[in-house]
Design goal:
- The protein has 2 helices and 8 strands, in the order βαββββαβββ.
- The protein is α+β, with helices and mostly antiparallel strands.
- Strand 7 and strand 8 form a beta hairpin.
- Helix 1 runs antiparallel to helix 2.
Length: 109
């Protein structure tokens, strides 16, 4: 079976709702990580308090046959077509070890 990764970088606090929608659409799970973009600005208030904009990074491993459906759900749920809401993209996976298949076997290409 061939797989691809769906990656979405979204505003902090939005990932759980997006993951819920994509798992309802057939994904078997996702990983959420936290980050900060290097192109973002740091806002300074009162010369001592700094507030940084942070992001959540969602990683979903998808069988190729489910990719279009799951990617569409991510794009719509994350609202990434709207400027400043984040980005979503896919990456082909050449080698994959450790993902559970539906029949309980481990995938090892």
């Amino acid at each position: 079976m061939e797989y691809e990764a769906i990656v979405a970088i979204v505003e902090r606090g939005k990932a759980n709702a997006i993951v819920k929608k994509v798992t309802d659409a057939g994904a078997h799970g996702a990983t959420i990580a936290y980050g900060r973009g290097s192109g973002e600005q740091v806002f300074s208030f009162f010369r001592s308090l700094q507030v940084e904009s942070s992001k959540e990074i969602i990683l979903i491993i998808s069988p190729r046959e489910k990719l279009d459906t799951l990617y569409t759900v991510v794009v719509e749920a994350a609202n990434v077509r709207e400027k400043g809401k984040g980005i979503a993209f896919t990456i082909p996976i050449c080698n994959l070890t450790g993902i559970s298949m539906e029949n309980g076997e481990k995938k090892d290409d």
